[in-house]
Amino acid sequence: MKMGINEQKSVSAVQQPLSKWKDKVWLTLGDSITAADQTMDNGSIVRGYQSVMHEKMGFKEYRNSGQFGSTISGNDPDSTNVFGKEQKIDDVDVITIFAGTNDFRIDVPIGSLGLIGDTTLDTSTFYGAYRSLIEDLLTSKPTLKIYLWTPLQRDNAGYDVNFSNLAGHKLIDYVNAVKEIGQMYAIPVLDLYSLSGITKLNLDVYTYDGLHPSDNGYERIADVARGFMEIY
Questions:
Q1: What percentage of the chain's residues is helix, strand, coil (to nearest 5)?
Q2: Residue 74: what are its φ and ψ, rounded to 5°?
Q3: 139 in any annotated domain
Q4: Domain for residue 176, yes or no?
Q5: Which of 176, 181, 183 is nearest to 161 (CA)?
Q6: Alpha-carbon gap, residue 29 to 1, rounded angstroms
Q7: Could you tell me if residue 66 is inside a domain?
Q8: CA 35 to CA 37: how far, in whole Å?
Q9: How many structural domains are present in the chain?
Q10: Model's pTM, two decimal places?
Q11: pLDDT tens digit string along 44-94?
């Protein structure tokens, strides 16, 4: 028996899976790429990756705690490792941390990974600050779901994927550090550096300055992140 058009639409709608994040609360930490969501830019409201993912994944709520210009490292009140620890997470189900490109830009030393269980962490280094933030979050709420997102490829102010900063590191070194931290704490890592499809060859399409995503860039980030977070 053939189905009518309306019947076919009905069956198709029923078969669409619900997102596992439906009705969950999501907190986003990071730098300007995160902070820009829902801010005004040249007379238009920025539709960041959060807005796109919220629409498609059905989060009950998302909270944007990104800070413009922030790094993971340091003890500045706006650094992600400090500001992230101040967030109320009692009702938060999932946190994404999307940072590291500014640490590369201001020549932050990566430092040594160390061992899980270390009682002293050097927050002036990338490893130490990132680990300090994660341990604080997991101590506050052991059941919290965390995802780490690596920096995107970039070409801004002379700092591109081929450039070595004053600390002797390339951007890929910070990317690999995020991966090692994720492995240490058994936290899923979304490697946007390698999987986003955003490279030096198409930065003019996905960013407006070689660093900050355009609408196309945010759509691309959201598409990759959505698939990743539904699986892991």
A1: 40, 15, 45
A2: 95, 175
A3: yes
A4: yes
A5: 176
A6: 53
A7: yes
A8: 6
A9: 1
A10: 0.92
A11: 899 999 999 999 999 999 999 999 999 999 999 999 999 999 999 999 999
